[in-house]
Specification:
Length: about 475
Amino acid sequence: MRSESSSTAAAVTEQALVRAHALASAFLQSLPERPVAALPSPDEMAAALDEPLPEAGCDPAAAIDEWFARAERGITASPGPRFFGFVTGGVTPAALAGDWLASAIDQNAGLWASSPAAAQTELVVLRWLKELFGLPADWAGALTSGATMANLVGLIAARQWAGRQLGFDAAGDGLAGQPPIPVVSSTEIHLSAVKCLGTLGLGRNQLRKAAAPGGSVDIAAMATLLREVAGPVIIVGNAAEVNTGQFDDIAALADLRDAHPGGAWLHVDGAFGLFASASPRFAHLGRGIERADSVASDAHKWLNVPYDSGFAFVRDAAILREAFAAGGAYVLGNAGWDPFTHVPEMSRRFRGLAAWCALKAFGRQGYRAVVERCVDNAAAFARWVEATPGIELMNPAALNIVCFRILGRGRDEAATGELNRTAVRAIQGDGRAFVTGTVWNGHAAIRAAFDNWQTTLDDVALLQGAVADVARSLSG
Ligand SMILES: *Cc1c(COP(=O)(O)O)cnc(C)c1O
């Protein structure tokens, strides 16, 4: 029976959703034309939004309206086709619809018993992702909040494995008093994986790094490094490196893993590069990933689903479960798959629905086309950089990231660095396209990453226009 108050609640909900829908539709329609970003200062944002906790409440539809009006200046068009900063995906129509529905049905995707639909959907999404990337069907996995947490899941499994090799239970008994677990990578390891080493008690500063001239690890240097490490070791490979999109030779790292006397675990950070495997044109770049022990990737980048979403795969399901086993009579003993036994969290968002809808609506062919279009756009932009006087390509664009800089015309290194940092801010302020800065080979540089499913060559032309105008006005 429906009480009067529940029918009122339903009407209020409906009104709030109608407002949210109107705001969302207007935003999405504005994306192609909207300035990508004109970042307000922290003071401006605080002036727009900061206030004490309201004493009295208000109508939900009015709340969502007010928030949008006050926050809008700080909303970037990051899901749009001209946001080339960091490594940023957009949102496909199916993914957005799925994500909205996930909020409305509000399932707890941590336990089978709280939502068999969510748990089974996640299993299917993991299956489809393995099929998309040619990974072994029997690998365990889970959805995460992003590649940082996916790196954490893979490295937790690695730590558990290494402890077992050394005769202890890392998750159960802790690391204190035990022999250290060495970790090796290239100098270009992503900061998120380094963060994980701190979280895991392996120590950010204990990481040993091999040189990676050009972005890809020097395999001979890695072999030398491994010879200095006696016992079991964790190898972190890049597929790909975030500044210029270069891949480590994962097959060669797998060979080193196989040959290491004390045993080794190969973890691959494939946050965006794993998607090369979705296209026969680029799958060779990630050759050997299927030989890894664990793989981390992002869904909110190249899968183009909303934040936050990533995924991790681990070859040895038993070691992963052992790392997260924590008992708990009130939650265990269900019939089906409990995702919380594979990830750090317990209760969690139903991320699988957005990913399921996205994969269903595009299919293998659709994702292959997205990846190839993005790489073709990156290649077109890289060719333009090379052909344009006064701008220099910093490294070949291996996949979907182009790293370049404006030349200093007689300026020294420090002044050229300042010129490029200023250029990043100027391009961002221009509003046609959004890029971010980095340092490559000791030089301040500019990056453009191509991950958005909607970006066209017209958008690339707008990016070129913004870069050319800023370069002309600054380097004069
Ligand atoms: C983006 C990225 C990460 C971190 O992913 P989040 O989704 O931001 O947690 C890790 N590794 C690489 C190579 C990345 O590009």
